[in-house]
Amino acid sequence: MKLRWRALLGGAVLLTGILLTACSTETPKTVTKPPIEEPDDQGQTITINPPITPKAGDPNAKYVVQTRIADFHLIDNNKGLVWGVTRNELRLYDTHDGGKTWNNISPSENVQFQDKLEYGKDISFTDSRHGWVVRQNLDQTATVILRTADGGQSWDVSALPSGAHVSSIQYVNPTTGWIMAYTKLNEHYEQKMLYHTTDGGATWNKVAQSSGMTSNKSGSGLPDQGSMAGMSFSPDNQGFVAINMDSKVKLYKTTNQGKTWTPVANRMQGCPQAKAEAQQSLEGNSSSFWIPVLCYGDKGVKYSGLFTNNTGTQWNDVSLGLSSNSSSITPGRTFLSGKEGWVLTDNGMSRTMDGGKTWISLKGNKVLPSKLKDYPRSVKLRFASSSVGWLLLERLDDKKSLLLKTTDGGVNWKIL
């Protein structure tokens, strides 16, 4: 994929060593590459669409994706993305026909990646054409932001200051986005910094930060203590963050584009130790979200959720009526609205239509039960509508993954 250089935040010196062959005929200078991860080419067989400029000998037929799928993002019933990192290269694919065929929209292999990429932390897309990918800080080099406005046919580059690690990224439209970054202070404290862009990610302006003095006091209201679980903004520039701090979930709210933050009451009952996961948006409302919460106790783990319909101003704590005696495997769970949701456990897929009060077991074909035996860990479960959903499973040895799809609300599943 072609990358175009544009204005880099902090100057071009921040990106030394990331010279892209599509932009220069000079021999690129090399830097120490991150450790090469063990190759794992046990991908699924998917149909790759012919590239715009076919390569000699390209069969344009069945092709085994040379990466283990690490995450995905559903845009709607027909559009979505999958990706993984193999040999430090990002392998990114999108589909416009519900997974029947795929397009390779990977950036240049010269931009090296070290870790798995997570949606909402390393990747954000507002639609099938506008997307952003974070290459996290490597050896005190800059944190690189890749962006595309043409569905991955070309990528532009910008950067955050050296030393900053991104914990959350979100775009509310193709031009306006937010990044929460941090620098580690010690085991329990990290200085948090919020960046804002209004030009699609070409330039980033710091709008708030915590004190950087291992203190809860800061002019912005963001605490140094704790680690970021997630962040979201609405189009009217209201936003919230969830922070895991002292075995509690702390929520903060902003109404002025992130300049200042105030704590929000969180009335979680009967949960001595809680941990929040990344928030998920709810269908049809840009101000409605839910946060999955793990509640640890003497008798195991209980699963609950924090729900908001006003971008974090008020939250409702909802017990999902689910528990586990083991904390090693967390069940996949997702909500499409405040009422409709799904959960995948060892017993299979269940659905709720009353916000988690009751769950109905979904019995369909044997594909899902059989694959759960080989791929017992649920990586991600999401639904684009009441009928269409994707499920990513992986082996416990972390060597293989499998992506499945349903078109009847989770009753029957097939391998993509």
TrEMBL record:
Pfam family, one: PSII_BNR
Listed InterPro entries: PSII_CF48-like_dom, WD40/YVTN_repeat-like_dom_sf
PROSITE patterns hit by this protein: PROKAR_LIPOPROTEIN (PS51257)
Keyword Signal: yes
Coiled coil segments of this chain: none
Domain of life assignment: Bacteria
UniProt KW Cell inner membrane keyword: no
Keywords (A to Z) from UniProt: Photosynthesis, Photosystem II, Receptor, Signal
Region forming the signal peptide: 1-22
Domain Photosynthesis system II assembly factor Ycf48/Hcf136-like: 121-266
PANTHER family: PHOTOSYSTEM II STABILITY/ASSEMBLY FACTOR HCF136, CHLOROPLASTIC, PHOTOSYSTEM II STABILITY_ASSEMBLY FACTOR HCF136, CHLOROPLASTIC
Designated name of the protein: VPS10 domain-containing receptor SorCS3
The species this protein was found in: Paenibacillus ottowii
